Amino acid sequence: MARLGRRLLIGTLVFAAIVLVVAVCVAVFLDVNRYKPSIENAVSNSLGMEFRIRGNVALQLLPLPQLKVRDIHLTNGTSELLSAEELQVSPRLIPFILHRRISIDRLALQRPQIRLEQPIVIPLRPGRMSSISVQDGAFSYLDQSSGRSIEVRGLEVKLSDLSLGESDGLQSTALLRSLSFRGTLHATTLQIGTLRASEVRCGVRAEAGLLQLDPTDVTLFGGNSHGSLTLDLRGSSPRIQVVQVAPQIDLGQVFPGEKTYFSGTVQASFDAVGTGTDL
């Protein structure tokens, strides 16, 4: 029995050494960059937009298979929607080996810049992913017709256990009803129109049409505010509830042009509920 155990141990070590040597050889000698045109065409056809890689492509096999793509750009017509310093993609091996089908398990974006001037529709297939992450990202949205704008800086997102089921449409409400995930979100600055907040932090969870940001912490009007936000899409009409407590609000920042009449600090709290036919 001891001899059998020793042989199993030796065999395991030899197999691990072979895997390590193969991984190193593939990483060193395989030029993945020659597949850049194929990768660009596959992503472009899948998204219905132009995807380009201006940097290098590298393959990493250990500890998990991972494709690293530097300096990526996604454009729709003449508008660049997305650029990122690096895209990291980890595919599932079994679907690829058995069916030659690419299935993404993990995705990470380093320093992405997302710029939108109108809502876009990206075709998504039902499936599961272990994680999606964003590091040091930026997002901006500007509606040219109404002038409404949203800008986010220093965006950090970590989502796990993502699942997208069959949906009855590509609109945001239909997708959220079929999407589930959990994770965290942090933004250094958030500006909606003229309203500016900083150090936005929240836990986030979505499941079967129920989206919860809980807890939420944000620095607004010179003070810290904490609470929760719940968006319920499970009924015939969307319902949103916002609960916030702000122990210290600077009135001078709330009314910057009326400091003669408004000064000092106040404590505020509210529990607001809203409903609508659509978002």
Helical fraction: 10-25%
How many β-strand runs?
A: 14
Binned strand content? over 45%
Structural class: alpha+beta
What sequence of helices (H) and strands (E) makes up the elements? HHEEEEHEEEEHEEEEEHE
**Tally of alpha and pi helices:** 5
How does the overall form come out from the CA principal axes? globular
Can you characterise this structure?
The protein is of the alpha+beta class. 20% of the residues lie in helices and 52% in strands. Mean pLDDT is 82; it is low at 11-30.
Topology:
Elements: H1 2-29, H2 36-47, E1 50-53, E2 57-60, E3 66-76, E4 79-91, H3 93-99, E5 104-110, E6 113-116, E7 127-142, E8 149-164, H4 172-177, E9 179-192, E10 195-207, E11 210-220, E12 223-232, E13 239-250, H5 251-254, E14 265-275
Parallel strand pairs: 5-7, 6-7
Antiparallel strand pairs: 1-3, 2-3, 3-4, 4-5, 4-6, 7-8, 8-9, 9-10, 10-11, 11-12, 12-13, 13-14
Features:
5 helices; 14 strands; 20% helix; globular
